[in-house]
Amino acid sequence: MIFDIILEMPGGEYCVNLVSGKNSQHRPVEALYIEKHFMISPTKRQQLKNKMQLLGILETDLVEKFILGSGRGGQKIQKSSTCVYLHHLPSGIEIKCQKTRSQEENRFYARRRLCEKIDEQINQEKSLRQQEIEKVKQQKRRRSRKTKLKILAAKTERSQLKQSRQKPKFDE
Predict the structure, then answer these.
(1) Would you give the end-to-end CA distance of the chain in angstroms?
(2) How many domains would you assign to the chain?
(3) Between vectors from CA 69 to CA 109 and to CA 114, what angle results, nearest 5°?
(4) pLDDT tens-digit series, residues 33-63
(5) Contact criterion met (CB below 8 Å) for 84 and 110
(6) What is the spatial distance between Cα 125 and Cα 131, in angstroms, rounded to a whole number?
(7) Percent helix, strand, coil in the chain (nearest 5)?
(8) Domain that holds residue 60
(9) Of 36, 48, 64, 76, which one has the greatest count of Cβ atoms within 10 A?
(10) Is the pTM of this model over 0.70?
(11) Is residue 172 in a domain?
(12) Per-residue model confidence as pLDDT tens digits over 136-157
């Protein structure tokens, strides 16, 4: 994995060095930060941090483990520990995330899911996810006889209206 390391030199200048696990030619004075290149934007990461602060979720309250994944995804999934297991100690909520093949992305998604679950517990109102589930249940539910008759009556009325708009037919 390649990292961009930005170094501050004594004169206030910055030096960018690509490190790929080999010895570097530059001797760093003070490393400011290491930035990894992943698909999740910094703004999304910051939004997640803000949401975690808002809900009172601390990184110290989380037990995070990386376990071998299973299922589709090829050899990468079976050989590397990309599946993330999160356990929030105060609430007892456990999250297991294996959405992508990247460990960092799975960490992000697991934390986001944890925020959603804790938000549902705190607010105890119907979240968007619960509303979607109820909508699907209602769509799958069978209609009553009375409702079916109302729908049929509306259809016949509509068909009569359409027939009245047609050009008159002349019999020969």
Answers:
(1) 84
(2) 2
(3) 25
(4) 344 445 788 899 999 999 999 888 898 989 9
(5) yes
(6) 10
(7) 45, 20, 35
(8) 41-127
(9) 48
(10) no
(11) no
(12) 998 888 889 999 999 999 999 9
β pairing state of 93-97 and 30-35: unpaired
Question: Residue 61: which of 30, 93, 33 has the closest Cα?
Answer: 93
CA–CA distance, 59 with 90 (Å, rounded to integer): 12
| CATH number of domain containing 55 | 3.30.160.20
For residue 169, being part of any structural domain is answered with no
CA torsion sign, 35 to 37 to 38 to 44? positive
Identify the residue whose tokens are 């601390």.
Answer: 58
Residue carrying the six token digits 């990309």: 82
Length in residues, the chain: 172
Whether 62 contacts 85, CB under 8 Å: no
Summarised one tens digit per residue, pLDDT across range 63-109 is: 999 988 777 777 777 788 888 999 999 989 999 998 888 889 999 99
